[in-house]
Amino acid sequence: MSNRHSLLRQLPAIDKILNCPEIAALAKSNPHLILREAAQKTVERIRKQLLAEQAPVPDLSFESVIEQVQQKIKELSRPSLRKVINVTGTVLHTNLGRAPLSNAALLAIQETARSYSNLEYNLDLGERGQRFSHVEELLCKLTGGEAATVVNNNAGAVLLSLAALASGRSALVSRGEMIEIGGSFRIPDVMSAGGVKLVEVGTTNKTHLSDFHDAIDPDVALIMKVHTSNYRILGFTDSVSGEQLAELGHKHGIPVLEDLGSGLLLDLTPYGLPREPTVREVLATGIDLVTFSGDKLLGGPQAGVIVGRKTVIDRLRRHPMARAMRIDKLTLAAFEATLRLYLDPQKALKGIPALNMLTTPADELKKRCTRLLPKISKAIEGKYRAEIVPSSSTVGGGALPLTELPGWAIAVTPLNLSINSLITKLRRTEPPVIGRIHENQMLIDPRTLFDDEIDQLCAAFSQAAGES
Ligand SMILES: *Cc1c(COP(=O)(O)O)cnc(C)c1O
Asked: Does the beta carbon of 259 lie inside 6 Å of ligand 1?
């Protein structure tokens, strides 16, 4: 038996760990299940390390074991889904939860969550009501649509539209719009999931009205236009406008659907963002049905919105899939509150964090960097160097893919360490800090940083520097 094997006997028994004063004191505020699991996992990890001949011999002192168990208890007690600080500057970061919600939306969630509500109860008539009714009128006001409904997300909105309008028949889509967005949403796959036969028309770079016209036969139940949210086809290109498709569809009695991806309700060009059609403008082309997300440029909770012609929307509502995709009441509360802010565009721009971040001018970002720099420099003294650099942020969420929002950032350069070790340390602070690397520097983009996170951010840097 090797020397390391004989050390196994020194590992403390689980009960000895649980009964020692340090751990027993934690029994009041922690479930026994967690304490036991922490003790078992810690001992198991030390045992494995002992048996791995190449690894250094672990510290077997009782104090060290207890310290590790305490650390493990912390880890196991912490929620899995939790707040992070986003300094990537990407406003609608899909991996970081897309749009942060407005205060109005948070209040609405809390109010609705802690009591009963009229979710599906019509207070005027004293009878059963419809959950979508809480946002339908608002959506119509804000987009000019005749009717509106909401489901779980935009992927659901597209799938429901396809299934309800064209299941068992075919739908026309331009080859230039055969998109894939992240998370396995691909037009051909969504079509087949909806039971719809996809008929591709035109070519990758050019599709003409005549391509759609020539493909129409009695089996065609839908014409679909897809917003190429996350890429652009440039050069020798041509696509068919919404007006042209709507006119063609109406002539043949075929509904026309546009998957808009991001639901822009306000024109943001006055704030330096590129021209992007609003939902109102798309509906004005005569398109029958528009679908979009609640948590992209709209800046609300995850939801899928469908606005357009009432007769078509009624068909969607009656489809069995509508029930399977129904929007949750907390989301609905947040969504209604977000939409209400849009009734006054200035309130929306100020109160909806995503809109506020997207429209923050570069000189304001520079001011924030100037205020932040001394605090960060102090936190990382001696280990890293920090300076203000021109930088740009992206919108994210597959919206406006080529847009670079001009701004400023603080660039942190390690003096002796690798940049990856800093990024890793910051991911492990509480709350974790997520930044982006650019040319061996970490950039802190103040666009997506909330004021009340500044102290936590500095504490995280100070911790990371202390460990280095
Ligand atoms: C983002 C996007 C979707 C999916 O929307 P989710 O709300 O994420 O389900 C569908 N189509 C387009 C064009 C998109 O940009």
From this structure: yes
